[in-house]
Design a protein that fits this description.
Length: about 80
């Protein structure tokens, strides 16, 4: 799954992101608007990790989303 899919369906992925990164507030997660670079910046800030570690965590989380995709949006 590419990141555009996650970004475009961010509302469906926010809950899983909150479970993964519980130190981020719901407002912080929502404020990223699914933009990978914003999520990375928040992880670096809140978890005090390097840019490389933040990217590793995001990539791991992204790969798990392929296994459990978010439910389809209702039209």
């Amino acid at each position: 799954m590419n990141w555009n899919t996650i970004q475009n369906g961010w509302k469906e992925y926010e809950g899983d992101a909150k479970l993964q990164w519980s130190r981020l507030s719901p407002a912080q997660i929502k404020a990223t608007q699914g933009q990978r670079q914003h999520l990375s910046a928040r992880l670096q800030e809140v978890y005090a990790v390097s840019p490389q570690e933040a990217e590793r965590q995001i990539a791991d989380w992204q790969s798990r989303q392929m296994e459990n995709p978010a439910p389809a949006r209702k039209a």
